[in-house]
Amino acid sequence: MPDPEHDQPEIPPTAEHKSGFVSFVGRPNAGKSTLTNALVGSKVVITSSKPQTTRTVVRGIVHRPDAQLILVDTPGLHRPRTLLGERLNDLVKTTLAEVDVVAVCLPANEKIGPGDRFIIAEMAKVKRTIKVAIATKTDLATGEQIGEHLLDIQKAGAGAGIEWAEIVPVSAKAGDQVSLLEELLVGLLPVGPQFYPDGDLSDAPEEAIVAELIREAALEGVRDELPHSIAVVVEEMGLREGRDADRPLLDIHANLYVERDSQKGIMIGHKGARLRDVGKAARLQIEALLGTPVYLDLHIKIAKDWQRDPRQLRKLGF
Ligand SMILES: Nc1nc2c(ncn2[C@@H]2O[C@H](COP(=O)(O)OP(=O)(O)OP(=O)(O)O)[C@@H](O)[C@H]2O)c(=O)[nH]1
Questions:
Q1: What is the DSSP string of 20-57?
Q2: 77 CA to centre of ligand 1 in angstroms
Q3: Is 82 a residue whose pLDDT tops 90?
Q4: Into how many domains does the chain fold?
Q5: 222 and 165 within one domain
Q6: In whole angstroms, what is the distance from residue 214 CA to residue 211 CA?
Q7: Residues 107 and 214 in one domain
Q8: What is the pLDDT of residue 21?
Q9: Are 117 and 88 contacting, i.e. CB atoms less than 8 angstroms apart?
Q10: Whose alpha carbon is nearest atom 21 of ligand 1?
Q11: What digits encode the pLDDT tens for the residues 18-67?
Q12: pLDDT tens-digit readout, 39-52
């Protein structure tokens, strides 16, 4: 009699499934969102050349047979100057204590500065979370610069009492070392179940993603004038009724809030030209993301000093 138990080929011991949360921190423009996108492989998180565009905690998810890496993209930690700044920092700190790994992004083409040291000091206060340093944008630095940067990162960590679990140089733009980073991050995760079903890229509601896409479009071209003064609220979003199923149209009504009259003028532009451009750019982005033709109805409103007013902040979703 064959013994089924012993006829089975021996199954090699496989590593157990790992899962966990990773949060990227770093000063504005450090490359957090771009890196999240490079790891997730889809445009879920919003990037822009302007600082402080990431206002919502959006998760990108890396699905692998052996692991699930959930990326929590946080607003940039910074010295708060307004009520909004304080709220964002509180949000970041709560996030950091809850994640498995926190990774600080430090651009390789720039020296470590006071802003970076502030963030590293804040990281040092979160005791249990594993700490990683990522030298981002290595395509913008020479080999020599990168080597020096890695040493500086080591020293800055030691100065704050942090022993980095890893220091990894990457270029999200060039796709350099991104998969190595993924391997290293997965290696730091605890054994755990798959938290999200396959195919989920982000758990941010579509309205929040759409609002961020509009904000991103609105920020383009007003680089220096109003970087922190724009908020977008999607008031209504839904498929237009009475359309054929093969010709859907998504109606989106959104308000773009600025703080002052003068800013409203800038946003609208000469004879409304700027607002039209912003609307078109945002519409194309939304259509690309959601795969549906979009009618975007965009209005500009003034919410006076919204960054300092708790009532306005709540209304705008902070
Ligand atoms: N050359 C190069 N540019 C990069 C790289 N990663 C990011 N950038 C650029 O740096 C700028 C900021 O990148 P983001 O990913 O938006 O930075 P962030 O840290 O998420 O910024 P906030 O959301 O403002 O905190 C953008 O213009 C990116 O295109 C990189 O690897 N190489």
A1: EEEEEE-STTSSHHHHHHHHHTS--S---SSSS---S-
A2: 15
A3: no
A4: 2
A5: no
A6: 5
A7: no
A8: 86
A9: no
A10: 29
A11: 988 898 888 888 998 889 889 987 544 444 333 333 444 545 788 888 99
A12: 987 544 444 333 33
